[in-house]
Amino acid sequence: MKLTDNVLRSFRVAKKIQTINCFDFSSNGETIISSSDDDSLVLYDCQEGKPKRTLYSKKYGVDLIRYTHAANTVVYSFNKIDDTIRYLSLHDNKYIRYFPGHNKRVTALSMSPVDDTFISGSLDKTMGPAVSARCGLMHLQGKPVCSFDPEGLIFAAGVNSEMVKLYDLRSFDKGPFATFKLQYDRTCEWTGLKFSNDGKLILVSTNGGALRLLDAFKGAVMHSFGGYNNSKAVTLEASFTPDSVYYDC
After folding, report:
1. For 41-93, what is each residue's pLDDT tens digit?
2. Which residues form the Anaphase-promoting complex subunit 4-like WD40 domain (predicted)?
């Protein structure tokens, strides 16, 4: 669903008041939820183009946020007291479950496309999946970024801004089944990974002046998209079009 002008206008107004940390569409495309540095979670109606409800997480703060497959529940990370991920009911603003394990700020949060499994990564160099409880955390060699493939069976981890590791969700504790090492770029850090909808490509986002497009099966760099003036090291956010032919940034 394309963002309406009213929704975009609402985001611009909100941005003048506080920094929006993250936002996500519900699976039915009817609503957007955003998290901001004023500890608010704002629910937007995509049809009306207006904010419809605001919740607050004053004690813990709110950073990364993702809808589950239900339009009235989310998982999100904190930026104040601790680094536990909370599962929240938007209906009554109550926590359903807690997912402890990380000891430093959560830097990656990805929801499975097929169920309510999610994976998270942290500055403490740990990463792992969770469903009804934390399934286990892997200790990696550096800060991870992560993402599920379109079928929800494989997830990718970008480590130390130079390696992509592919894991089978059913046996992730046995280690990656494929590892691709890329040329290290000292001028930037990786900030995100995204699979194309056909599962053939991986888009690597950075806080530098370029993005990389990888072959998901071979790990080869197919394209580097540069030319961005990013002297302030702002995270470049990018995604694929539904047909996996184009990307936007």
Report:
1. 999 998 888 899 999 988 888 999 999 988 899 999 988 878 899 999 999 99
2. 185-226
Pick left, alpha or beta for residue 151 (phi over 0 → left; psi -120 to 50 → alpha; otherwise beta).
alpha
| pLDDT digits 0-9 by tens, 195-232 | 998 999 999 988 888 889 999 999 999 988 877 777 77
Q: Which two tokens stand for residue 198?
A: 């056909």
Residue 189 has a CB neighbour count (10 Å cut-off) of 19
Q: What does each C-alpha distance from 241 to 22, 114, 152, 203 come to in angstroms?
A: 20, 19, 19, 12
141 within 8 A of 157, measured Cβ to Cβ: no
Which domains are assigned to the chain? 18-100 (2.40.10.480), 108-248 (2.130.10.10)
Q: Are strands 154-159 and 144-148 parallel, antiparallel or unpaired?
A: antiparallel
pTM for this prediction:
0.80
How many residues appear in the chain? 249
